[in-house]
Amino acid sequence: MATTLNQTHPLLSIPFNADSDFTVLADHCHQLAEAQAESLDPTLRMALCGRFSAVFALLKPQLNEPIPPEQQARFTVNTLPTRVPQFAPDSDTLGEYCAALAQVLLCRTVPPQQEEPLRWLLADLMAYLAEEINAPRWIRTADGVSVIDDVTG
Question: Which residue stretches of the chain have pLDDT < 70?
Answer without folding.
Answer: 1-7, 153
